[in-house]
Records
---
Amino acid sequence: MEDVWVEKYRPKSLDEVVGQKEIVERLKSYVKSKSMPHLLFAGPAGTGKTTCAIALARELFGENWRMSFHELNASDERGINIVRTKIKEYARTAAPNDVGFKIIFLDEADALTPDAQAALRRTMEMYSKTCRFILSCNYSSKIIEPIQSRCAVFRFAPLKPDDIKERLRYIANNEGKKIDEKALDAIVFISSGDMRRAINILQMSAAISDEITEDTVYKATGLAKREDVEKIITTAINGDFLGARKMLQKLLVEFGLSGEDIIRQMHRTIYELPIDDRLRVELLDKTGEIEFRMVEGANERIQLDALLAYFALAGEKMRKSNQ
């Protein structure tokens, strides 16, 4: 079975971590001093939280880092019992290294129940001599204040396009694949700063062809091209409702996309359109309303037609006001 590229190309050291320079520098200071407080990594998916935790453990504990690093996913076992049993039992044992402590990496810590978090804060205090905690979450606001106050907080930002492209080129070269600039732009657009998703898209595209193009990327992901979605919106705004509807129907049939997939792509595309900000606000407001209706169970085709009709009316209204 082919290797999963996300794990195959996961950085082995802090120096290899992409796009989080300030965070890496702070973590290096802990390695240098052989000491660290409890840490809280917060930020969107695919920005390097798990990678930084593993790289930190590797550099602190050396070759036998796995003996001193215990990873748990809080979304699998999120109740108070996981804190009272697994976490407490591991935290209370002596560290099998010369650094003096072990690390418990608690991924998706924001999935822990309030009771479990309350139990965890006491465990963090009691066993801080033998164990340090690294909590990883998407939303730090879901972590109770007493835990946040016990941790040094690191906020991970979505990766910049240039950082993602550089890593993708490196992986493509290592795998003997050719990738053009438009394909890189497409992957960056779809991944939205998520490196894990970008690498997975690259691997899916490489499975289709050794020469990765923009068409290959959209074929692999099952998404519509940004240009096609933009054309639908601009056609509707310019007053050609039936033309826009025809293009939308073709897109739905060819790519087999759901209404929610299309409306999410429309939402992102509206921000990039060269239109008046007032019109942009109106379009975004209506897009949000239509998306809510879909989630509540309304018919997708009818709602998308209604959205295009609104785009056409809003465009006509804007043209009249500018006369």
Note: Strands lie at 38-42, 69-73, 102-107, 131-137, 151-155, 178-179, 211-212.
---
Amino acid sequence: MSKTLLSYIWKFSARQQIILLILTVVSFPILYMSLELPKQIINEAIGSSAFPVDYYGFSLGQFEYMGVLCAAFLLTVIVSGLLKMRTNIFKGTVSERLLRRFRYQLISRILRFPLPHFRRTSQGALISMVTAETEPMGSMMMMRYRVRCLPQARC
């Protein structure tokens, strides 16, 4: 097993971490556009009096220009939301796989104990030991993945 959590994560999920980084970097320009378009709608489509506007070779009046900007804003909000949803789902999948791999490795290490140890220790104690060791790592990895939990559920 790796000595640090970061090296463990990088060893078993480097490819997925790079994909997450790419998804995040791709979402930045779209997020910027979704923040910039409302300013353009207010300042140029509503507040300006210089119409018709030449927009990519088309001559647009105030109403048409505002419609184009609003449609572009709606499109960027939808695309940004879909990218964010895909990124969060992928983060959750990666963290669940890492946590499952970590649990399996702990169980395989427990099975290396001498046989008399298993006669003295109950199965419940072994399972609670694996759960106690993996819970902090799982909650740290899943921290940004969770959307919301029910009040009575342990998240």
Note: The beta strands are 53-55, 58-60.
